[in-house]
Design brief:
- Helices cover about 50% and strands about 10% of the residues.
- It is α/β, with parallel strands linked by helices.
- β2, α2 and β3 form a beta-alpha-beta unit.
- α5 crosses α8.
- The protein is globular, with a radius of gyration of 20 Å.
Length: about 325
C-alpha cells in the first residue's frame, strides 16, 4: 500500500553543505520542484544573507515557500506546515516530484513526521509580558512557571531556549490546556526518502567562511542597510538572525565592518552545531552522502529508484 503513496524527497544537512545546488540539479533531472524548509528564506528582501536560491537556480527549478512574508511579519510553524503540505500536494497533482529542502530542523520534521501543532495564533501582548518576566526574573524562573503548568513540556524544553518556553506558556495560558497534551504526530500520506549531506567539520567551517566572504562581495551590507532604511529594525526576529543582527553595532557606529564579518562567521558556526541536534548521523531514516565528493550521482540513483517504487537498502545506523 505504501508504494502507492506519492513520493516526497527531503534533502537535509547543515548550512553551507550544498543542499540547494543538489536540489536544483535533481529537480532538473527528475521533473521535480523545490519546497523550501528554511525559516529565513520565507522573508522578502532578505536574499543574500539567507543564501536564497539565485535567480538562475530558481529558473532551473521552481521554488515554493520563499519570499512569502515581509520582514516584520511572522510565519508560525503551523502555518508553514500547512503551506508545505499544500505545495507538496500541488506538485504531486501535476505528476512532478516534490523536494523538501532545508536546514531548519523544526520545519523539516514538522512535515515528514506529521507533527500535530496547536493552532493558537500569537498573542503579542502576552508574549511581551512573558519576555519581560524572563528579563526581570531570569530564564529559569520562566521555565519554572512552565513546569508548574506543563511538566512534560518543561522536561522537553531547555530553560535557555526562552522563545520555546514563551510559546509553550502562551499556548497553555490561552487554551487552558498543557501544550504537551495538544501535540503529537500523524504520519503524512507520502512515501518519504530523506537524503542528508555531511561534511567534515573543518571543511564545513571553511565553506562557511568562504560563503560569508562571497555574501559581503555580493552586497550584504547594502541589503541590510536597505532593510533598515525601509523601517525594519533589529528588534524584529527576521533582522536579529544570523547575517543581519551582527550589523547592528556597525550601523550604529560602534564597531568596524571587519568585526561584523567575523561575528557572522562565528554565529553561523554556532548555528551549524545546533543543526546537528535535528539531523543526527545516527538517524536511520537518513541516507547520508559525503558532500566532499560530488553527491549528485549517488543521490540521483537513490531518488530514481525511490520514485519508481523500488526497495532501498536501509539508511545506515
Amino acid at each position: 500500500m505504501s508504494a502507492q503513496l506519492p513520493p516526497l524527497v527531503a534533502i537535509v544537512g547543515p548550512t553551507a553543505v550544498g543542499k540547494t545546488d543538489l536540489a536544483v540539479r535533481l529537480a532538473s533531472e527528475i521533473d521535480g520542484e523545490v519546497v523550501s524548509a528554511d525559516s529565513r528564506q520565507v522573508y522578502r528582501r532578505m536574499d543574500i544573507g539567507t543564501a536564497k536560491a539565485s535567480r538562475e537556480e530558481q529558473a532551473q527549478a521552481t521554488h515554493h515557500l520563499i519570499d512569502i512574508v515581509d520582514p516584520d511579519e511572522t510565519l508560525g510553524l503551523a502555518q508553514f506546515q500547512e503551506l508545505a503540505y499544500a505545495a507538496i500536494d500541488e506538485i504531486t497533482a501535476q505528476g512532478r516530484v516534490p523536494l523538501l529542502v532545508g536546514g531548519t530542523g523544526q520545519y523539516v520534521m514538522a512535515v515528514v513526521e506529521g507533527w500535530k501543532i496547536p493552532r493558537v495564533p500569537p498573542d503579542q501582548a502576552l508574549r511581551a509580558k512573558l519576555y519581560r518576566q524572563a528579563d526581570e526574573e531570569g530564564a529559569e524562573a520562566l521555565h519554572e512557571r512552565l513546569h508548574s503548568l506543563d511538566p512534560a513540556a518543561a522536561d522537553r524544553i531547555d530553560a535557555r531556549n526562552v522563545r520555546r518556553v514563551v510559546r509553550a506558556l502562551e499556548v497553555c495560558l490561552i487554551t487552558g490546556k498543557p501544550i504537551s497534551e495538544q501535540q503529537g504526530k500523524s504520519p503524512p500520506p507520502y512515501r518519504i526518502l530523506m537524503l542528508g549531506l555531511s561534511l567534515d567539520r573543518e571543511a564545513l567551517y571553511r565553506r562557511i567562511d568562504e560563503r560569508v566572504e562571497r555574501m559581503m562581495e555580493a552586497g550584504l551590507e547594502a541589503e541590510v542597510q536597505g532593510l533598515v532604511d525601509a523601517g525594519y529594525g533589529f528588534d524584529l526576529p527576521a533582522m536579529s538572525g544570523v547575517g543581519y543582527g551582527q550589523f547592528s553595532p556597525y550601523l550604529a557606529g560602534e564597531a568596524p565592518l571587519e568585526s561584523v564579518v567575523r561575528e557572522i562567521k562565528r554565529a553561523t558556526r554556532r548555528f551549524v552545531r545546533q543543526q546537528v541536534n535535528w539531523f543526527r548521523p545516527s538517524d536511520a531514516r537518513i541516507h547520508w552522502l559525503d558532500a566532499a565528493q560530488d553527491p549528485y550521482p549517488a543521490a540521483l540513483e537513490l531518488v530514481r529508484r525511490f520514485v519508481e517504487g523500488q526497495e532501498l537498502q536501509r539508511a545506515r545506523e
